[in-house]
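I have a small job for you when you get a moment. Can you supply me with one protein entry, sequence and fold together? It will help me judge whether the discrete encoding reads sensibly. Write everything out right here, beneath this request:
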Amino acid sequence: MKGRSLRAAVIEALERVRLPEPGRIVRAFPHEISGGQRQRVALAMALACEPSLLIADEPTTALDVSVQAGMLQLLDVLVREREMAVLFVSHDLAVVAQVTDRALVMKDGRAVEEGPVLDVIGAPRAEYTRTLVAGARKLGRALDLRSP
């Protein structure tokens, strides 16, 4: 593609990931758009080749909670529309529990536990997984300003 057809395809890809003002985004430098917008541009680029598997490596890192929620919702919609699988890589157990069906816990590059996400997080078998889950729960309680 070249010229107008390329520009039209790029704008269409940006619209598919719900970027407002895609014409402005096309002309912008990376430092001129927000982190959430950069994530959506990266997603549009990844989806442009119509993959059957999307590898989402920390797609919500460094995004504020509301932008993170929007990105997760968008991923869910796009995956369902395209009947695509997603390999979701994250350190955030709360997000993993929210968006995945199965989980694989790794330590030092090796799998230590895998299974349905509710089983892995709800009743971890591996000591390392138990430590991760306990830490996430402790942090969650520490950040809950409503608790005494």
